[in-house]
Amino acid sequence: MKQQQVIFLVSQPRAGSTLLQTMLNGHSRIDSAPEPWLMFNPLYVLKDQHMTKDFGHKGWGASVDDFLTRIPDGHEVYDQHMRDLALDLYGKARSSDDHYFLDKTPRYFLILDDLMRIMPDAQYIMLIRNPLAVLMSTLATFPYPERVCIRHGSDLLDGPRCLVEGLAKHRDRMTVVHYEQIVQDPDTQLQTICQNMGLNHETGMTEYSKHRIPQGKGGDPNIHKHDRPHTASVDKWLKAITSIERADLCLSYMKQLGKETFTTLGYDYDHMHQQILDRRSSLKSEYTLADRMRRVRNGVNEILGKVFKGHRRYHTAWS
Fold it and tell me: Which residue of 19, 80, 93, 311 shows the fewest CB atoms closer than 10 Å?
């Protein structure tokens, strides 16, 4: 299998990657699987940032790195073997030798530089969505802010910043698309993507209910609720701000990411900030007085601050 036949789709989780994957999978020459995660551990192991694992990721990475230094050109040899392994497995996952394989693993934003090094000739698609929409979509799944902060800190903080870094370094090597544009004009966006990959656009790709949808673990289970892209989710994030607490969470999140991040990703920081303030003025607290006292007693605000202050990559806190 050639590198040019591998497609990496990089995005934040909850950014619409399953929708885009499903439409691309409707092309007669593109095969896919829900979320392979194939390249993550082999490449992330050698990074300075570390995951929390039972066996100790830091020691794991240091040991692998030490082992590779004992081999002539060890890191280059490692890269070559990882590339060969990936191409072999992706190739076997295709239904035909002339097909492309799409690896849709959102958190590849953490290893984008490494992917570019390992697979310089592969196809790369970066999918961007309004970070506030991603936040509110995550809250819809995990409705307690403290759980979102603990379980999804990397997705919500690292994600947008890694995408910004990726744009600065690799924009000319990627097809960059926005979720909002995909749902508003899917045919034009798919035509651009196919053209950049050297494929002819095929009619019917947007009617994803009529063709095969990758089955397995990972992805958005709600993809089956619609037959084709729709715009209902574009402004859903604002409507989901139903309390003062949620408005404050969004304002705090915007502050932490910063205006430059939103602007670079293609979103109007000042306009959205004002939208939240206007909506907040008509909202009430979602907690009773007893709830608020209990939350203060439990130190929820302190917990949230510690979670993000100690965040492994950016050392920031929502405040």
Answer: 80
